[in-house]
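Q: What would this complex look like in 3D?
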Amino acid sequence: TIKACIFDLDGVIVDTAVYHYKAWKRLANSLGFDFTEHQNEQLKGVSRVRSLQLILGWGGVTKTEAEQEQLATQKNIWYMEMVNQMKPEEILPGAKEFLTTCRKVGLKTALGSASKNSMTILEKIGITDMFDAVIDGNKVSKAKPDPEVFLAGAQALGVLPEECVVFEDAIAGVEAAVAGDMKVVGIGSPDVLTGANLVIKGLDEMTLDKLYKL
Ligand code: G6P
Ligand code: MG
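A: Here is my prediction, written as structure tokens for the whole assembly.
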């Protein structure tokens, strides 16, 4: 039986995936190269440091660890400039409604995100109190596709992994959920999120009926 829903943040609850992409693109461009939207798919769900390493690799650029730290900080400054402009209306269609539905029928809810900025974003859009637990990039050491973030979520909620459904827009996130023995609903394209049990375009397409049929 399904007892809990665990939600990724970027690209599932809010469209910050676009802000991440813009900020990384700006950083790459400042270093004299660019990367494609297809390459960007590989960054989704991936930690800040690991994302930078992937991008530097694509550009064939080598940086020292100190330089990498500086570049990651710069990216986060540009990213937070966009986040700080966010309004509650920027919550993705259906997200708040589905969270409310889950809570009404007694399903537990958790956030499971790699982002160290999760709490700031939840506060910006005013939905902090809709989660029974928040597991973010400050609380885990192993990044998706490692299941740590979702397993920690299940534990915090007091449920078993197989009683959880994860909502994810990232390939690495879908893999993490599968590795954690959880059901997973992909948010995006079925061609990209091949490992998911079900793929929908957004939470506005999600229903309890679909959830219980997983
Ligand atoms: C999420 C996003 C990634 C991002 C990561 C870390 O998983 O999908 O694009 O790199 O969080 O986010 P942060 O806000 O800590 O840089
Ligand atoms: Mg995401």
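A: To summarize the key features: Residues 8, 10-12, 17, 44-45, 169-170, 173 surround magnesium ion (ligand 2) (CB under 6 Å). Residues 65-83 form the longest helix (19 residues).
Q: Very helpful, thank you.
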